Amino acid sequence: MGFTISRQSVPAIVVPQEAAELVRFASQELKRYLGRVLGKEPIITQSADGPAIALKICKDTNLSQEGYEIRTDGQTLTISAPEPVGVVFGTYYFLTQYVGCRFTGLAPDGEYIPQRESVEIGDVAVQRKPKLWYRGLQFSKTEGLNDYPAETAIKRIDWMAKNGMNFVLYTPKYQFGEGGADRFYTDTWFFRHIYPEVRKRGLKLDMNHHNLFYWLPPEKYFKEHPEWYALRNGKRSAYPAQLAICTSNAQAVETLVQNVLAYLREHPEVEIVGVIPEDGWGMCECEECRKLDFPDEKFCVGPVDYRKPEGENRSKARRYALLVNEVARAVKKEFPSVYVGMAAYIDIQWPPRDVVLEDNVVPWVAIYWRCGAHPLGPHSCPVNTLFWDILKEWKKAHVGRLILYEYYMGMATYRSLPFPVAEVMIREWPGLKELGVDGATIQSTGESHETYGLNYYTFARLGWEDNLEYEEVLDDYLLGMFGSVASEVRPIWETLVGNLQRIEKFGVRATPYKESVDEGCFTQNAWEFNALADSRALERFRACCRRALKKAVTDRERRQVEMLLVSIRYWELAGRAMDVYFRATQADKKDEKEKAVKLYKDFISQVDPILDHEARFVGRGWMGLSNDTDQWRRSGERARRRIEVVTTGMKNV
Ligand SMILES: [Zn+2]
Ligand SMILES: [Zn+2]
Description:
By secondary structure, this protein is an alpha/beta fold. The protein has helices at residues 21-38, 84-97, 151-162, 187-193, 195-200, 212-215, 218-221, 250-266, 287-291, 314-334, 382-397, 422-435, 453-462, 470-482, 486-506, 529-532, 535-551, 555-589, 593-617, 626-652; strands at 3-6, 12-14, 44-45, 52-57, 68-73, 76-81, 118-122, 125-128, 134-139, 167-170, 204-207, 231-232, 235-236, 270-274, 339-344, 361-366, 403-406, 439-442. Strand 9, helix 3 and strand 10 (167-170) form a beta-alpha-beta unit.
């Protein structure tokens, strides 16, 4: 009958005496979760006579790169891997696949842990290794990270390990010295408070995202060397706009390179170090920099419509590629196993035309404002086909690793509204894998993790599996999140995905916002959420939750459904407000002044209730405050400015 574990004969967990820290960590996790399943904790020992689960390192080269093997032999089940982190991943997989746990939401409430007298494991002989090299979430902004203990960030790191993700992307800020400020954090802070959690689980570090000024901080150099920084409108400037340094200045480049090397010496644990332009648009206008540009290209710092082939800036891409190669060559010499991260986004999302990048460079290609209704592919809608073509160009131009920068947190102009693209992801990743894309870093924040949890979970699964069925992934996800009431709330996800598929199928006919929808796509201006769930749908969602609350058997299930209800209330407030905002802008465009003012005022009156609602539930991982608050406030300010402009116009008439 094969391997069975039961309360009557709880298996011992066997760990060699000299086991690595990570293997010990895995054994503690196994003990903790088996204890919860069986109601009786196993012991951890160095040898056992009876039934046992052995954790150990093996030398199977076939399994390198985080892979593992699970195998039964008589009374022993062995989880082994060539690297200690493989034992961690293998242990969580064992708990999921064979014991029945689901770690699909943030712990503890987002996890389903069955309680059983016994679990029949059967005969097992399985080897698994990742299908994608890079599987990561970002911890770069709006984490509430500086608000130690940064619980949500730590929960997400825990979640990543449980679901087989590996790269933690972090972005320290230079300018705050030793402390933190606003929603950013320093390197010291990250290594003190967050890194121990990363290390404990064997995850990898990717120091990445807008950081050009981290490597060449104007606070430190501008006074003495203004010529190291970009010439902007005829003046040297320390303004952080994209390629904001003078890349033709050899001294500036050399200083930057030395700073990167110094950082790596200080942090041998970093596996990828990015050299990434600052946010916004810009590059140096000086004569020396201009000499390096394509003579036939009109000088343009941006902004441009980058979702069209004409948006390519060949000169900027070349300058940036030359800079990255300088860093990459120096890094390769001293740190041969470290990769250099690079950004391919907006007007520099195309590969450089005539610079071959070093093979230790890992560009991330940002699928920025993609369409969520259509899969990325060669025959998709115009915007997604453009992204696909760019990826193809990259694969031709670059021999090294290539990853995506994905927005599975849905943009929604950062408003924590659902972006139900998991089913589209499952359709598009086989093609991306075939093309040779090595994974993705996912823009995401802890504050809204659960809203996009299914997307993150689906990506984690895609990192290890090729043939996924959306319905099965959804079932697993909902079981983890909602346990015994999963089927009660399932219609909510079915409706959201169903309506997204209607947009894919019927284009603009499936949305009330025809004026705003580009080719019947779903790029999600926040008002387009109403195309996924109108007020009647939201009423049905609530009915689902009420049924779930009645049927729930544990407190954690009730808490989960209550948080879902809180989210639905937020969706309702946000959807209604954005609908008004949309109609206001339409009236404004048509010059219907009185109507526009009335609608703008209506919108403004709805902002505070939204912020109040958010404020009551912030920090639980379902909806955010920092980014969201900014977005709502900014929309409110825009509405106020429009009222001013429109009413001034009215008086003048
Ligand atoms: Zn310059
Ligand atoms: Zn589309």
